[in-house]
Amino acid sequence: MKRRNLVVALALGVLCAQAPSYGAEPTIVKIGFAAPLTGPVARVGKDLENGAQLAIDEANAKNPTIGGKPVKFVLDVQDDQADPRTAIQVAQKMVDDGVVGVIGHYNSGCSIPASAVYHTAGVAMITPGSTNPALTHQGFANVFRTMGHDGIGGVIAGQFAVQQLKAKRIGIIDDRTAFGQGLADAFEKGAKEANGNIVDREFTNDKAVDFRAILTTLKEKNVDMIFFGGLDEQGAMLVKQMRSLGMPTLLFGAGALKSNAFLQIAGHAGEGTQDLEPGPALDKLPAAQEFAKRYKAHFNQDVELYAPFAYDAALAMLKAIHDADSLDRAKIVAAFPKVTVTGVTGNIAFDPNGDLIKPPYTLFEVQQGQWKSLRTVGGNNGA
Predict the structure, then answer these.
(1) Which end of the chain is less enclosed by CB atoms within 10 A, N or C?
(2) How many other β-carbons are positioned within 10 Å of the β-carbon of residue 223?
(3) Which residues lie below 8 Å from residue 230, measured CB to CB, with a gap of 6+?
(4) pTM to 2 decimals?
(5) Are residues 299 and 265 in the same domain?
(6) 217 and 194 in one domain?
(7) CA–CA separation, 232 vs 238, rounded Å?
(8) Closest listed residue to residue 190, CA positions, set 212, 175, 219, 170
(9) Residue 65 is part of which domain span?
(10) Listing from the earlier edge strand, what are the strands of the sheet with 250-254?
């Protein structure tokens, strides 16, 4: 090779070495996802998974880079079976898998013990569904959530029941889970603060299907409202049995009844049931309506319940990773408290505990077989 050609070849080699490698394979970045994907609430878990997956797919379509290098985000999906022990096991598995953060869990009874695993490993965790206040009050700097907690929502529900719904004789039933019992405790606190009359409090378990003994007791005490701290399918069975006993009593919940499954199981018996849900009136928000269309196009099914909150949790996780501009777990955790992102459910920003700042709650009622939003309380709308 002539000297001139050799110099040119060497120069081109140097330029190629310095030029960005646009054709390089992207680095796979694992983001954990944990929820119940089998069992009674599997449909909710799958809905959450779909919400998170949609955000991940949309992010990957933009050819993301971290630290100047191309990356591809993937969900490391785990089934915690709504079981606390299983939740601990899958949490450790995801940590060992090398996830840079975790979206999950759904049940508070799973999120609370799993959060200790993530805390020890220094992995950021953001839940789209766990509302027990204890989760974010453990002193862990790595735990966040995308909906208001029951310490706010339950109290608002209790005050609302007395002041707005004018309940005079209130009965309370809870399922003894971390979610249900904690929610019922907060509801009772709010109702008493509003000088409400709690005439009885009963409990069941999250596997029960027959509530007639409890309902008969409450009927004899002439309650005009039953507050249920538990999940939607049990709430649907509960309201059907209320109607079979001739109880005109209002069934009221907070943060778990509003789903398609409740409507399908409860049928006509569900008419008039009310539920105070975390978040804005999604059925009236253009952003949520557009999200529902994208969700339907992507998965060929409708949103079940909390997919928008999982989508927003994924947005917050991705924002923290991009703000850190690193795949280092500690840097991602450090970036999280400063995250601000506009999601489907509104503005996502966190207080020092990792809770949403000014979370809204919306009252829904079953009307003609559909959940209809009545009004939003809290948040930027005021109580």
Answers:
(1) N
(2) 24
(3) 173, 174, 175, 177, 179, 180, 204, 206, 238, 253, 256
(4) 0.83
(5) no
(6) yes
(7) 10
(8) 170
(9) 27-148+284-350
(10) 198-203, 170-174, 225-229, 250-254, 274-278, 360-367, 370-378
What percent of the chain is predicted at pLDDT more than 70? 92
Give residues with Cβ within 8 angstroms of 201, minimum separation 6.
171, 172, 173, 174, 184, 188
Element (H, E) at 35: strand 27-35
Give the CA distances from residue 365 to residues 270, 272, 354, in Å, rounded to whole numbers and listed in that order.
9, 6, 30
Residue 90 C-beta-side C-alpha neighbours within 13 Å:
24
Same domain, yes or no: 294 and 209: no
Residue 23 confidence (pLDDT): 61
Q: 348 near 312, Cβ under 8 Å?
A: yes
User: What separation in angstroms does the CA of 23 have from each of 20, 26, 30, 63, 70?
Assistant: 9, 9, 21, 12, 9
- Does the residue 12 lie in any domain? no
Q: What integer pLDDT is reported at residue 153 of this predicted model?
A: 87
Residues 355, 142: Cα–Cα separation, whole Å:
11
Q: How many folded domains does the chain comprise?
A: 2
Q: Is residue 371 part of a domain?
A: yes
To the nearest whole number, what is the mean pLDDT of the chain? Answer: 90
Answer whether residue 204 is part of any domain: yes
Helix axes 42-60, 286-299, angle to 10 degrees: 100
CATH code at 133?
Answer: 3.40.50.2300
Query: How far is Cα 191 from Cα 206, in angstroms, rounded to an integer?
Result: 24
Residue 340 is assigned to a structural domain of this protein: yes
Q: From 18, 54, 17, select the one nearest 295 (Cα to Cα).
A: 54
One-letter amino acid at 180 equals G
Maximum CA pair distance of the chain?
104
Nearby residues of 166 by Cβ (< 8 Å), 6 or more positions away: none
Q: How many CB atoms lie within 10 A of CB 155?
A: 21
Task: Extract the runs of DSSP E, i.e. beta strands, from 133-239.
Answer: 143-145, 170-174, 198-203, 225-229
For residue 327, give both structure tokens. Answer: 């795949």
